[in-house]
Amino acid sequence: MDTFDVIVIGAGPVGENAADRASRTGLSVAVVEAELVGGECSYWACIPSKTLLRPGAARAAAAAVPGVADPGPLDVAAVLAWRDERTGEGDDSGQEQWLDSAGIALVRGHGRLVGERTVEVTPAQGVDDDVDGQVRRLTARCAVVVATGSAPVVPPVPGLAEAAPWTSREATAVESVPESLVVVGGGVVGCEMAQAYADLGARVTLLARGTLLGGAEPFAGEAVAASLRDAGVDVRLGVETQGVERPEPGGPVTVTVTDADGAGPAEVTAAELLVATGRRPRTGDVGLGSIGLDPDAPLAVDDSTAVVAADLDGAGRPWLYACGDVTGSVATTHQGKYQARVCGDVVATRFGDDGARAADVADAGAWSRYRATADHGAQTQVVFTRPQVAWVGPTEAQARAAGTDVEVVAYALGDVAGAGVTSPGYPGRAQLLVDRERRVIVGATFVGPDAGEMLHAATIAVVGEVPLDRLWHAVPAFPTVSEVWLRLAETAGL
Ligand SMILES: Cc1cc2nc3c(=O)[nH]c(=O)nc-3n(C[C@H](O)[C@H](O)[C@H](O)COP(=O)(O)OP(=O)(O)OC[C@H]3O[C@@H](n4cnc5c(N)ncnc54)[C@H](O)[C@@H]3O)c2cc1C
Ligand SMILES: NC(=O)c1ccc[n+]([C@@H]2O[C@H](COP(=O)([O-])OP(=O)(O)OC[C@H]3O[C@@H](n4cnc5c(N)ncnc54)[C@H](O)[C@@H]3O)[C@@H](O)[C@H]2O)c1
Questions:
Q1: Is the overall model pTM greater than 0.95, yes or no?
Q2: Cα-to-centroid distance, 451 and ligand 1 (Å)
Q3: Which residues are listed for FAD binding in this entry (predicted)?
Q4: Is the CB of 35 under 6 A from ligand 1?
Q5: Does residue 49 have its Cβ closer than 6 Å to ligand 1?
Q6: How many angstroms does the Cα of residue 411 sit away from the middle of ligand 2?
Q7: What are the residue ranges in the chain where pLDDT is below 70?
């Protein structure tokens, strides 16, 4: 059967979720996947990177506690073996079985729109495809969801592409750790991989155009830069990459940089080079031109995840949806899956049960399950460096630029009793942004060991718009690091 109610292009974490939710009112759903079911996150991003980072964090936590013997260097082979175990060594048969058990059809191959609600699937390189070298044409009775993710950007620096640099794929899939690594880009991937490779014993140089972690509060990037330097990483801020040379394929690579003020040039030579300069939504080869959309732009969506620029179907309903990295509005698995839950529920309700409940979607309020409202002011992110950096909502600068009069309330994590019994010199800081007019928290940043585990309390406070006076009654347990919430409330005047 080549006709389904819903076709999802891309079976990453986001596409899988959207397909699952869309099938819950009995709609037939197919997902088209060109590589591995589970997407970037499972095999070349979140999961491998976190397994590479966790051993170093565990070692540092143990080493910080008096009386614990020096844990010594990491067992690199064991770390890589654990990474392989967690990523399933590129075997997606478990994910395939899950799709099967959920009643979702998997079509392996490369999907492209060729008109309204029509998707052509062609063989994809290196994939055991279902199209047997043939082109297969799928028709969707109701909706098409694009969840094709994103691809790394390699900037047009002279010699860079020719040097065959690593992107995050090679960095997370490594079989042996190079003696030295130069990382271009001081964002999330650059900082996490600089941390991981320093932990694994490589001599690391991190080249950042500006400061580190530009999307977070400035104090977060400063803390990560200081800690990476303590770990032996050569962190160079405010440098511009001018050129790359690699005379022998696989041989040493030399990067030429200048300071922002033009000083230099200086050269950095290393055994390997990682480019971590951002990602772009994967829209270029999805056939968007066939339906009059710009293939070079992210697929902008409204709060119901309907693609804004797409035409409606004959009954006046949106038929094209998108979620995850491809929208350009989120770049994490958890926010993409949030969009996917909204998308799947919108599609299932709008088109399922013969459309009997379509009005539920049309009339939905901002905080209904049919609107991705948290995308606007409550996106979360955790960076798994040491210290970890975790935040929800806008930074102070972003909040002020949006016209919100915020009070900044900050407290040193090391000054709470729970930190004092965790380890001497416990580092870190918690910061809340309080809307002065409404007396609710609109943003929060935590920097410290395991800071990501403290984030969700803040996310609940932001999404729930919990008044500070009520938050006062949420009593953190003694002696935990989360007692910082009490200290923050006191600092805010309670
Ligand atoms: C190194 C690294 C570490 C990261 N760590 C984290 C983390 O710790 N936490 C976090 O939340 N996020 C993390 N991210 C971000 C996270 O990986 C992405 O946000 C997430 O993978 C997006 O999911 P997605 O389903 O939108 O896209 P993807 O995971 O990219 O999946 C898209 C899928 O679509 C398929 N596809 C694309 N085009 C087609 C086509 N035309 N036809 C058929 N199939 C197609 C692809 O093969 C792929 O399987 C990390 C990213 C990187 C690079
Ligand atoms: N823990 C997590 O949630 C996690 C981990 C890794 C990646 N991710 C996601 O993956 C996405 C991609 O990560 P990323 O680090 O590649 O992107 P990023 O946008 O976080 O950082 C890119 C960095 O590269 C710099 N840059 C851009 N062009 C440059 C150039 N020509 N020369 C030097 N520097 C340049 C930018 O100034 C920026 O600092 C992120 O948006 C992030 O959300 C998430």
A1: yes
A2: 24
A3: 50, 111, 148-150, 325
A4: yes
A5: yes
A6: 28
A7: 1, 126-129, 131
* CATH class held by domain 161-277: alpha beta
pLDDT of residue 1: 57
Q: Confirm or reject: Cβ of 339 under 6 Å from ligand 1.
A: no
Q: How far apart are CA 61 and CA 107, in angstroms?
A: 45
Quote the ligand 1 centre to 388 CA distance (angstroms). Answer: 22
Ligand 2 atom 20: residue of nearest CA? 187
Q: Is the peptide bond before 427 cis (omega within 30 degrees of 0)?
A: no
**Structure token digits, residue 216:** 């977070």
pLDDT at 129: 67
Dihedral over Cα of 58, 59, 60, 62: its sign: positive
Q: What is the pLDDT of residue 128?
A: 67
pLDDT confidence of residue 69? 87
Place of tokens 């060991």: 449
Binding site for NAD(+): what residues are annotated?
185-192, 278
Collapsing DSSP states into helix, strand and coil, what is residue 186?
Answer: coil
Those residues with Cβ within 8 angstroms of residue 470's Cβ, 6 or more apart along the chain or in another chain: none
In CATH, the architecture of 387-491 is: 2-Layer Sandwich (3.30)
Ligand 1 atom 24, closest CA: 149
CA 151 / ligand 1 centre spacing (Å): 8
How is domain 3-38+92-151+280-370 classified at the CATH fold level? Answer: FAD/NAD(P)-binding domain (3.50.50)
Complex ipTM over 0.95: yes
From-to residues of CATH 3.50.50.60 in the chain: 3-38+92-151+280-370, 161-277
Q: Where in the chain is the domain with CATH 3.30.390.30?
A: 387-491
